[in-house]
């Protein structure tokens, strides 16, 4: 089993769907992944693109669900072994990167990270920019594939808060117990990303962005 990134400890075996975890002692199995449900995403493992002048390749995915739907978060491995997340929901795409929440100096984000509920419509200052809480809910992992920075077992549930700004910036705070993670980014299109290696979908004319 080959890991594309030295920084990513987890990979789902494409043959048996075991979740393999790499440690200093070797590679172990941390459960088995459920089969991914059918969807019509144009993204797939191996899709390539560019963001902010740097090339990337899609190497993993987590499919999340909430009470009224589901969405994909694709893990993108960038040049230099950095990774970002390409979220895909209702035909829209968002590229985000993890940032250190401790350095955000945002009273509202810190309050939520410590366990308080997020209230949609409330404002939070992030890097001096006012962002609005657009959504807050519990979400659960349906299934995963490829390489990931964490173990994502089916049924894993976290608290997820989405924030938006008028200029297209977006951010997500995810919380589980006393741990919280912050992701910052913006909306993108497949044309912006110059995406290649897209999945063929019946009835969809394959675009040529590359």
Overview features:
single chain, 210 residues, mainly beta, eight-stranded antiparallel barrel, globular
- Distance between termini? 30 Å
The stretches of 5 or more residues where confidence is low (pLDDT under 50) are: none
Shape: globular
Total count of helical runs of at least 4 residues: 2
Strand order, largest beta sheet: 5-6-7-8-13-12-11-10
Strand share of the residues?
Answer: over 45%
DSSP helix fraction: under 10%
Order of helices and strands: EEEEEEEEHEEEEEH
Please state the average pLDDT score.
92
Calculate Rg over CA atoms.
Answer: 17 Å
Structural class: mainly beta
Task: Tell me the major beta sheet.
Answer: 8 strands, antiparallel, barrel
**Number of strand segments:** 13
Describe this structure in words.
The protein has 210 residues and is mainly β. Helix content is 5%, strand content 51%. It has 2 helices and 13 strands; from the N terminus they run ββββββββαβββββα. Strands 5-6-7-8-13-12-11-10 form an 8-stranded antiparallel β-barrel. The longest helix has 7 residues, at 107-113. The model has no long low-confidence stretch (mean pLDDT 92).
Give a short overview:
With 210 residues, the protein is mainly β.
Topology at a glance:
Elements: E1 10-12, E2 18-23, E3 26-32, E4 48-51, E5 54-66, E6 69-78, E7 83-89, E8 92-99, H1 107-113, E9 123-126, E10 129-148, E11 157-164, E12 169-176, E13 179-188, H2 190-193
